[in-house]
Each structure stands twice: as C-alpha cells, then as structure tokens.
Amino acid sequence: MTVHRADVAIVGAGLMGSCAAWQLASRGLSVAVLEAYEVGHDHGSSHGRSRSFRRAYADPLYAAMTGLALEQWQRLQDESGTHLLTGTGGIDHGPDYDVETLSSLMAAHGVPNELLSAREAGTRWPGMRFETDAIFHACAGVFDPESTIVAATSLAAAAGATILPTTRVIDANMMPTGDVALHSAGGDQIIAQFAVLTTGAWLPDFSSAVAEFAGNSEPVLPPLTIRQQQTFHFALRPGEHALPTFVHKNGRQMYGMPSGTDVAVPAMKVGCFHDGDVTTTEVRDQHITDEQRQSVVEYVRDWMPALDPTPLAESSGLITMTPDGDFILDRNGPLVVAATCSGHGAKFAPLIGSMIADLVTGAAQPTPRFQLDRGASAH
Ligand SMILES: Cc1cc2nc3c(=O)[nH]c(=O)nc-3n(C[C@H](O)[C@H](O)[C@H](O)COP(=O)(O)OP(=O)(O)OC[C@H]3O[C@@H](n4cnc5c(N)ncnc54)[C@H](O)[C@@H]3O)c2cc1C
C-alpha cells in the first residue's frame, strides 16, 4: 500500500477538479489529484472540444460570475500560454425570452449587448432563421474543455501537484487528527488536511461521506438527477460563414456553438437541453436514440439553413441537476464539495477552481445559494 500525503486531495479531474488543482497549487499548497479514469476521458461531463461561454444570464448571481470567470479564463490562458477561449458572439432568441429585460440586466452587469428585430438578425446571420427579436452580445465565445483540463493540470503539476490517474477513491473518512483519509480501489491511502470532491455525476457515491463530515446521520446532499445529454455536429454548407454561439428558447431550449476540433470541417454542435434520459453513472450507456437524433436534425433543417442537416458526429455526456438548478459549492470541516450542476457550469470552471481554493484556505465563506443546506429560502 502506498501512502500519499498532501495539503489538499482533489477527487475527480474533470473541468472543476483540474481547475481547482491549478488554483490551489498556484497558492503554494501541495495538491494530489485522484482521478478514477485517465485524465481527459469521455465518461463524465467535460469531454469533447467545445463548450459555450455566454454572459446572457438574467440571474444576477450567475451574470456577475460570468464576469469573474472571464478574468480567470484570461489568467489561465496567460499562465499556460494556451489559447482556450475564442470569441464568437452569442445570440439569444425565441418566444420564451423577454429580451428587453435580459438586455437591461446584462447592461447592468457591464455586458454590452444589442437588441435586434427578427428581420435585422436574419439579415446579419442569414444562416439562421429568426421569428422573434434577438439579443446579441459580442463577448460570448467557445472554448475547448479538453485543452482546458490539460492546461490546468499541467500548471498544477508544474507547481508541484501530483496527478494520480486510474485511482478510484472508494472511501473518505475524518481521522482523529482532523485530517482526511481517502482510500483508493487499488489499496492506496491519501492523507490530506483537506479533501475536495469534484466528482460530477458520481457525487451521490459520496453521500454518506458528505453526511459524516457535516456531522449528520441523514443525507445532506440534495437529490441529484443525472441525465445523458446528446449533441450533434453539422457541417457548414459550402460558402457559409461561421455562426455565433446561440440559445433558442421556443418551447424547448436548443443551443449551438462552433464545433471546434471535434470534427475535421467547419461545423456547428447543436443540442436540445433537457431531452436526455434520466440515468445513473452505473447504467448510463451513451446510447442516442433515433428519436433524439431526429428531433435535432429537424430543428437544424427548420432553423439553420447554413448547415447540412446530416449529422457528421454525435456525442453523449452526463448532466447533473439539483432541484433548484443551482450549483453545489460548500465546505464542512476539511471537506469541500463542488458540483456545477444543471448543464451550464463549464464556462465557470477557472472561477470555480478559485472559489474552491477560497473555501479551502478560508479566504471566503460559501455562497448561500450554493450551500448544501440552503433549503427553499436561499433563493
Ligand atoms: C453535452 C454537454 C454539453 C455541455 N455544454 C456546456 C456549455 O456549452 N457551456 C457550459 O458552461 N457548460 C456546459 N456543460 C456543463 C459542463 O460541461 C459541466 O458543468 C462540467 O463539465 C462539469 O465538470 P465536473 O468536473 O464537475 O464533472 P466531470 O467532468 O464529470 O468530472 C468528474 C470527475 O470525477 C471523476 N470521479 C468520479 N468519481 C470518482 C472517484 N470515486 N474517484 C476518483 N475520481 C472520480 C470522474 O471520473 C470525472 O473525471 C455541458 C455538459 C454536457 C454533458
């Protein structure tokens, strides 16, 4: 049995764990990262080559966080020397938006934006179809989550962090010393002053441990729903120009962004938020049904004339939902729990890493809406 010691042990090296490792190691703490699979695997939520960065939030908490996240993206790019975030601009449209209110809220958070009629939007982006007013903000973009994980873990390793792939943690206990003891499936032990759970959809596996650290015999994790989310890549037709990142709310929520290097030709990734099957990490199968595929193909055919509606590639990932849609980011004694739930957390990853580091070092208190015991009154 090997015994590793560190100031902080991070369980899970997806976007959140890798960014936490970078932020903690850069503050001079010794860090060990334990990842059940190879770093960069495709079983969780952070694989693929494109995620959207958007600032079109009506909720002031998340709107403010997008600005802070942008600063941390810049820092991660500067320190790693890696270009991660590419500006594309972002469009929000559809009858389920109150674009005027959203525009004012974004402006109040310092996000310049333009309101366009359907006709103006259609003239500007003839590769998309509009039936309602649209809102455009130029500072939206797209980033590559796999390169982000590489950049963050490389910086962490350069600052002395130990990255332990194929190390599945099966147990977390408080030791009499107040340290945390983690045990791996391979029989290793990791002893740390603090442990951070960034296990994404696997967080329910640690329900008992989270309760134990909270000094509670009852579960303290909110009930989490895990869904498989599928996305499809569609080539731009010859002569068509790249399109912005977009969200279209018309009874359901469609979204899309440039595909990045997921496919070899200029393309857009398109998906339907919330149409994935409820699953668990044990039984999920990454199977995409004909019905799910056809629904997105028909959307592209109807709304995106710039795209060839035959999918070039498709992918499935896990989305973890809390009942209220808010993230989990809390600390009980030496245990920090961080889950960016509800399918929109990637854009915040470098900021979440910083917020995790603040909780570990005591530089900040948990955000009330992200606390485990927030209850119904937190909103
Ligand atoms: C298809 C899809 C599209 C998305 N699009 C966007 C978008 O455009 N914009 C946006 O902002 N967000 C988006 N999101 C959300 C975003 O990608 C997630 O919020 C983010 O990836 C979550 O990262 P994570 O590190 O929490 O989870 P994960 O990436 O799943 O990482 C958790 C890690 O923990 C490891 N682990 C679990 N259990 C153990 C254990 N016992 N021992 C050791 N390791 C363990 C896992 O192997 C995994 O590597 C999307 C999500 C999906 C699925």
From TrEMBL:
It holds the Pfam family DAO. Its cofactor is FAD. Transmembrane segments: none annotated. The keyword Aminoacyl-tRNA synthetase does not apply. Residues 7-359 form the FAD dependent oxidoreductase domain. InterPro entries: FAD-dep_OxRdtase, FAD/NAD-bd_sf, MTOX. The keyword Iron does not apply. Keywords: FAD, Flavoprotein, Oxidoreductase. GO terms for molecular function: flavin adenine dinucleotide binding; sarcosine oxidase activity. This is Monomeric sarcosine oxidase. It comes from Williamsia limnetica. The lineage of its organism: Bacteria, Bacillati, Actinomycetota, Actinomycetes, Mycobacteriales.
